[in-house]
Structures are given as C-alpha cells and as structure tokens.
Amino acid sequence: MNYLDLHQKIEQQISELPPEQLALVSDFLDSLQPKITVNERQLRRISPIKRGKKAGDLLRYAGTWHGNDLEDCLRLVEETRSQAQF
Questions:
Q1: Where are the domains of the chain?
Q2: Residue 65 C-alpha from the chain's centroid
Q3: pTM of the model
C-alpha cells in the first residue's frame, strides 16, 4: 500500500468515527508529534539565505545524514511529488 492509498484509507476511517473515538485518535496523534527541542526553536530564528550566496555559505546550515531510512525517504518523495509546472 503506497502513501496515497494509506492516506485515503485513514481519511475514510476517520470520517466514520463517532466523536468519542475521534477524540481518542486526536490524542493519539498528538502523542506521536515530536516535542520541539531548544535546537529546533533556534533553527526557526535563523534568517533566510539570500540569493547570490555560494554553496560554501550553505555548509553552516547543512548537517550530515545520521539515519538509516534514506531509501524510505526517497520512496516517499517519489510517491508524493507532483509534476513541476513552469
């Protein structure tokens, strides 16, 4: 089951829930949300990168990949991306 199929299935299931169970689902989803850390708050305060900057200027914002889910991320992007319009 791809991302879109799963999303549609979940939407259908949610639309059929009574209010009491919907509240439980909402509480569960809230518990899945990651807590905002101090580092994430600091990242939000960084000023945007201006046009004309060089790649070297981006290195201070770039980290390294520490996960083992790169293939999963790429698969998700391929399943959910839309056609570019110019």
A1: 3-79
A2: 16
A3: 0.37
